[in-house]
Amino acid sequence: MSVLDRFRLDGKRLFITGGSRGLGREMALAIADVGADCILVGRDEESLNRTADDIRALGREAVTMIGDMGTPADCERVCNEAIANHGPIDILINNVGGRRKDIATVDMPLETWQELLDLNLTSVFICTKLIGKSMLDRGQGGRIINISSINSMVATKGIGGRSYETSKAAINQFTKACAVDWAEHGITVNAICPGGFMTEPNIRWSKENPELIKRFRSQIPMGDHGQPEDLGPLAVYLASDAARYVTGATMVIDGGYTLV
To answer: pLDDT by residue for the chain (260 residues), tens digit each?
Structure first.
């Protein structure tokens, strides 16, 4: 067997939140490219269908599910429907999330704080609880990948919305705890911490606060932001048998930003 064969995901099925755009889209396409079918979850039907069509062009099946994963009841609904109608699920990527609000801590309403924690953290808990249980019940292992952020380790200066840093740091510890709980069942749980990637939200931030983005970029040792497609190979690795012995890890992909 070639070492590259260990990266194949033929016969596997991926469930990914926020799977129609940005980092989610690129991870879904990469995982489909090495053989997996995909269940894509998002709020926008048009972008979901566009990504699904691109996955089908690779010869893989793609199912789209519309849901707001930042609303706990809707998140539970989508997970339960996916398990019942589109399972079994071998790979879970908890990708949905974002800062969304540039609000100072002293000005942030409690409702906004809770709304953003539900988006970034509670959705990870619900999907891991429900889809992870389906993996446990099936007894054939599985892969869970949580998309965290370098802001789980360092705070970006000059911007509000600190619920983002808080929730992403919690994801890292939740990843480790679940990894310990489920290692004996062949389920690996790992986190990816992206740095500055030019996704749609960051393109918006660059227009609204160009000096912030310029300063951030100047502090990246590799000299530029990442592109969404840079994340695909790392997701493939963690989803595959090549990472069989990796669990509880927090992998940084940031062009060296957190080194300085």
So the answer is: 799 999 999 999 999 999 999 999 999 999 999 999 999 999 999 999 999 999 999 999 999 999 999 999 999 999 999 999 999 999 999 999 998 888 999 999 999 999 999 999 999 999 999 999 999 999 999 999 999 999 999 998 888 889 999 999 999 999 999 999 999 999 999 999 999 887 776 677 667 778 877 888 889 999 888 998 999 999 999 999 999 999 999 999 999 999 98
Give me the number of domains the chain comprises: 1
Residue 64 is assigned to a structural domain of this protein? yes
Q: Is 91 a member of any domain? A: yes
The whole-angstrom separation of Cα 205 and Cα 200 is 9
- d(Cα 157, Cα 164) in Å, to the nearest integer? 13
Q: Could you tell me if residue 259 is inside a domain?
A: no
CATH code for the domain of 146:
3.40.50.720
State the pTM of this model: 0.95
d(CA 189, CA 143): 6
164, 237, 245, 257: which one is catalytic?
A: 164
Is position 164 annotated as part of the catalytic site?
yes
Q: Which domain holds residue 248?
A: 3-252
Letter string b/e over residues 90-113, b meaning 16 or more CB atoms within 10 A of that residue's CB: bbbbbbbbbbbbebeeeebeeeeb
Q: Is residue 260 part of a domain?
A: no
Q: Which pair of tokens denotes residue 227?
A: 């592109």
